Every structure is written in C-alpha cells, then in structure tokens.
Amino acid sequence: MMGRHKAYRSNPNKRRRIRFVPQWLEKHAVSDGEQLPSANSVNDPEALRELIHYTAEGNVIAVRLLARAGVNVNMTDEDGWTALHYAADEAQRDVARLLVEECGADSSIRCQEGLSAADVARMDGNFDMEKLLNPSALSSSSSPPTSPPARFTSSTPSTSSQESG
Fold it and tell me: Which residues lie in Low complexity bias regions (predicted)?
C-alpha cells in the first residue's frame, strides 16, 4: 500500500478518527507556517507514480490531496500517459471529473501513440467518459442545439399513423 492511514486523537474519550495521507505527501509535508506550492508546480516522478496509482484505484481523496499539494496533474509517464489517461483506461469517472474540473487537467494531451484520454475511453467503449473528456463535446454541450435532430423533424410518424387509420 502506498499511503498510510494515521490515527489521531484529540480526545481519548472520542472514537478514533482515521485520516489518509499519501506517502509522497507525508514525506514532503508543508510545515504550518509555509504556503502550499502553486497548482501543477511539482514535477516529481515519485509524486506522479503515486498520483497514477491513486487515479487508477479511484481514490478521489488521495488525488485531491496530491493536487492541492501542487503535484502537476498534467505530468506524463514514460509512455506519455497522464493521470487522466489512466482514469479513462480504468473507467474512474469521479477521478476524471475531479482532475478536469478542480485540478485543471488538460484533456487534449496526447500520449506517444497519439491518443488523448478521450480516445482511450472510446477504445474501451466508455462513451460517457469520452463525453466528459472530449473538449469539443464539452463546448458543444454548453450551448443548446439550434434545431432538433433530423430524426425528430421528419414527418414519418404522422404519415404512418394516417396509413394505418
């Protein structure tokens, strides 16, 4: 296991609370007076390995903690895959949404094979994930369609009802 669950007690009479701390974050913890690094500023290969692990596992809390600690969510591994590629490959929709909406992950980054995260999702048959990750689908879904699709504008239903009646 990469991270560690730490028990901490503020009052011995209360139930013990457990908090999860990713290993990299524990090792590079910011002391109380220091500020967190800016978003996507930490380019540590060890942090990337842990980010990818928690992304593929679907651990939203660990991914959020690492991103808030400044880990670059757009960093690529040796194959050119980002954490978003792994989220798409493992169908981790909640983590993908977190990476895109809160952490500023770039869904247009392509790996060495030329695949974006949306392409990986489409290859796996995960079309909901593809819609989430495809930048053109996001921009077109924000504006309402100007006219109904062609299948709804045809007069086929009315003519078929006249023929049967």
Answer: 135-165
Based on C-alpha coordinates, what's the Rg of the chain? 22
d(C-alpha 38, C-alpha 23), whole Å: 20
Residue whose pair of structure tokens reads 């980002």 in the numeric block: 82
Q: If we measure between CA atoms, which residue out of 165, 96, 91 comes closest to residue 133? A: 96
Whether this prediction's pTM lies above 0.90 is answered by: no
Residue type, 3: G
Encode pLDDT of 99-116 as tens digits: 999 999 999 999 999 999
How many of the other CB atoms lie within 10 Å of CB of 90?
18
In single-letter form, the type of residue at position 68 comes to R
Which tokens hold the place of 63? 């991914």
